[in-house]
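So, can you check this one?
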Amino acid sequence: MVDGSLTANGGVYGGSADGCGSGSGGGIYVTCQTFGGAASGLLSVKGGDNTGARGGAGGGGRIAVDYETLAPGNAVRFNAQSGSGYYTQPRRAAAPGTLWLATRDLLQAGTIGDGRFMGVCFHAPGFDAWTVDELVVTNGAVILAADGFTLNVQGDLTVGDGGLLGIGAVSGDAHPALNCDGSLRVRDGGCLLVFGGRTNSAAKAVGAEVTVA
């Protein structure tokens, strides 16, 4: 049971030297029969912040939890955010880290929020497609990061304040898809990312597909 904090965060740089980088998040590997805990439980591999001159922040680290069963009422939180630094452009900013779970059961349909998943590229065995009735993402950041991931939302999809939803792998080979049969709303303070796959092949003319009925 995780009721406290287990951290392997990257080192913070606040010196005056020009161009120095901060540390990336480390790694946490947990293997157990039953995994659970309260909302006070946190596994964190956050990248280090950087307040130096032209210094890069640290990328998020790696979390893996290999369990047989989940305890009832599981509310453990996960943080693999990148740090903040001088560079904010997507091509130069630090990237979030990875969360691998033995099942996708902690990622429940309906609402992703309450700070449970912060800056995680989410992976679980065989989890490359997901169909939900509706989905709200707020106060959390999760990337459904399997290469070519397909998300089917049969109702409304809303990305609210403090929410980030990503679909697909960065520089992936396959082509992710988002299919929304209801309204697609990205509120002020929300962010939706769909990462295109490679297009230098005759097999596919687009990097990603977003369909809103």
